[in-house]
């Protein structure tokens, strides 16, 4: 029937007339364990848009076609466990078409965790492996395209209960929480940054999340920040809190006591810092998330206070 076939395609415009007036409302519930069709299509379209922008940023690179061939080969072998020699036997067009069909079927039909696994792999690969990308003109100024931020905007618009924080997709939806974590990930205190990256990794592992070690790494980020400020790699957090004032970080006694208690919690709860205490960790996702966000906020606060009178 061609493009003018006599079939009514449902109108699904978020915040459009039908949606605003509750006539044909779209989902506004946070989606964690499943994604509706509208959201899945939005994610698929976003991936398509991202690939188009990146293709334009790579256009001046003489080996652009080969870069894309390697990209699709990696997805086929690493994500979908297909035999490398069979994929390499395809010409570039057939390889791209085949792997795109894998991706499309995952996004539209597979479980939510598979969708996020594919999205996470693709955007981390493009961000980390595509060299020589040119600044993208967004209508006003030239800037480097941030594919993870672009997908986060889609997640927010579609009420997806996950966000990219650094290289990981995690179940944190509050903007304040995200900002605190991202600020720590941009910190000049490399040791604290590395602990938070590890904490995120343990928290976001959908196959085997390790909340106990996530808490351990989060608290270790605070300790690492104190060591940085005091220039003492041997001091522990409890001891460091008593010395911070000597470096211009004057904590209120109540705040210092709260941090000391947080450290004690991390030492005792489910054997977080001493795994021999209990075989199984008693730490829940909610606790690990709370400690992660709180630790980031504390790290950022300590760095800010220290930076008032010292150059970082």
Strand fraction: under 5%
> Which strands sit side by side, in order, in the main sheet?
1-2
Q: How much helical structure, as a percent, in the residues?
A: 55-70%
- What integer value in Å does the Rg equal? 23 Å
Low-confidence stretches: 274-280
Spell out the key features of this protein.
single chain, 312 residues, mainly alpha, 4 strands, two-stranded antiparallel ribbon
Written overview of the protein:
- β3 and β4 (168-170) form a beta hairpin.
- The chain has 2 domains: 2-157, no CATH class; 173-307, Up-down Bundle (Four Helix Bundle (Hemerythrin (Met), subunit A)), CATH 1.20.120.
- The strands form 2 sheets. Strands 1-2 form a two-stranded antiparallel ribbon.
- It has 312 residues and is mainly α.
- Helices cover 59% and strands 3% of the residues.
Helix and strand arrangement:
Blueprint: H1 17-20, H2 37-57, H3 64-79, H4 84-88, H5 92-109, H6 112-129, E1 136-137, E2 142-143, H7 147-157, E3 163-165, E4 168-170, H8 175-185, H9 190-204, H10 211-230, H11 237-241, H12 253-268, H13 285-307
Antiparallel strand pairs: 1-2, 3-4
Summarize the structure.
The protein has 312 residues and is mainly alpha-helical.
């Amino acid at each position: 029937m061609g493009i003018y076939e006599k079939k009514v395609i449902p109108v699904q415009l978020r915040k459009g007339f039908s949606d605003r007036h509750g006539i044909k409302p779209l989902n506004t519930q946070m989606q964690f364990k499943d994604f509706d069709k509208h959201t899945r299509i939005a994610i698929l379209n976003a991936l398509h848009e991202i690939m188009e922008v990146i293709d334009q940023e790579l256009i001046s690179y003489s080996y652009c076609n080969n870069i894309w061939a390697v990209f699709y080969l990696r997805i086929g072998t690493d994500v979908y466990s297909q035999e490398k020699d069979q994929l390499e036997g395809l010409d570039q067009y057939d390889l791209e078409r085949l792997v795109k069909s894998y991706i499309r079927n995952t996004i539209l039909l597979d479980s939510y965790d598979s969708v996020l696994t594919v999205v996470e792999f693709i955007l981390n690969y493009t961000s980390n492996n595509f060299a020589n990308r040119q600044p993208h003109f967004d209508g006003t100024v030239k800037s480097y395209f941030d594919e993870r931020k672009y997908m986060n905007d889609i997640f927010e618009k579609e009420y997806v209960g996950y966000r990219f924080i650094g290289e990981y997709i995690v179940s944190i939806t509050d903007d304040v929480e995200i900002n605190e974590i991202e600020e720590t990930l941009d910190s000049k205190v490399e040791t604290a940054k590395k602990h938070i990256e590890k904490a995120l990794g343990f928290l976001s592992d959908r196959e085997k999340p390790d909340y106990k070690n996530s808490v351990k790494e989060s608290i270790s980020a605070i300790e690492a920040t104190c060591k940085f400020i005091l220039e003492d790699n041997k001091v522990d957090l409890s001891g460091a809190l008593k010395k911070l004032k000597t470096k211009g970080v004057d904590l209120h006694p109540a705040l210092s006591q709260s941090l000391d208690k947080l450290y004690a919690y991390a030492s005792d709860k489910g054997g977080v810092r001493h795994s021999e205490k209990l075989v199984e960790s008693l730490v829940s996702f909610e606790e690990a998330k709370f400690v992660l966000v709180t630790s980031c906020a504390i790290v950022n606060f300590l760095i800010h206070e220290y930076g008032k009178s010292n150059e970082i």
